[in-house]
């Protein structure tokens, strides 16, 4: 079956070995786990940060901005000052952090740098 480029007489560019490093597979990316809460969060928000980190162990440093936003909104939910429009934003943030209805079993998790170190020590993850 001819592709759409063949129909108009064009051929797709061939991958050159010079550019091979630009086509890195996502499975080869390693990131650091989500660290401690930033110092500027108040006590409740800091506790919620640690709750998110413990409940969703796949969170990485790249997720820190979304986690911070979720902590602030969840703190408002706990204190009763969260209005309905912000509740929808909180639900959306949790889904973006991959904490929604999709289970971790059905996801491809990004490997953490720490996991590779433990694997080198002979521990089976």
Count of DSSP strands: 0
Radius of gyration: 21 Å
- Unreliable residue runs: none
Helix/sheet category? mainly alpha
Basic shape: elongated
Order of helices and strands: HHHHH
Can you summarize the main beta sheet? none
Distance between the termini: 43 Å
Mean pLDDT: 76
Quaternary form: single chain
Percent in helix? 40-55%
- Treating each run of at least 4 consecutive H or I residues as one helix, how many helices? 5
Q: Work out the strand percent.
A: under 5%
Walk me through the structure.
The structure is a single chain. With 125 residues, this protein is mostly helical. The protein is 43% helix and 0% strand. It is built from 5 helices and no strands. It has helices spanning 4-7, 43-55, 64-79, 84-96, 113-120. The longest helix has 16 residues, at 64-79. The protein is elongated and about 65 Å long. The termini are far apart.
Write the layout of secondary structure elements.
Blueprint: H1 4-7, H2 43-55, H3 64-79, H4 84-96, H5 113-120
Helix pairs in contact: 2-3, 3-4
Keywords:
elongated, 125 residues, 43% helix
Briefly, what is this?
This protein has about 120 residues and is mainly α. It is about 45% helix and about 0% strand.
């Amino acid at each position: 079956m001819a592709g759409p480029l063949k129909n108009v007489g064009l051929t797709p560019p061939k991958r050159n070995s010079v550019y091979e490093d630009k086509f890195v597979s996502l499975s080869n990316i390693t990131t650091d786990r989500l660290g401690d809460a930033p110092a500027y969060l108040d006590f409740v928000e800091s506790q919620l940060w640690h709750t998110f980190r413990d409940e969703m162990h796949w969170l990485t440093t790249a997720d820190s901005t979304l986690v911070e936003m979720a902590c602030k909104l969840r703190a408002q939910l706990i204190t009763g000052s969260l209005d309905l429009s912000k509740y929808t934003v909180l639900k959306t943030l949790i889904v973006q952090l991959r904490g929604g209805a999709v289970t971790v079993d059905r996801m491809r998790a990004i490997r953490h740098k720490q996991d590779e170190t433990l694997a080198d020590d002979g521990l089976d993850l």
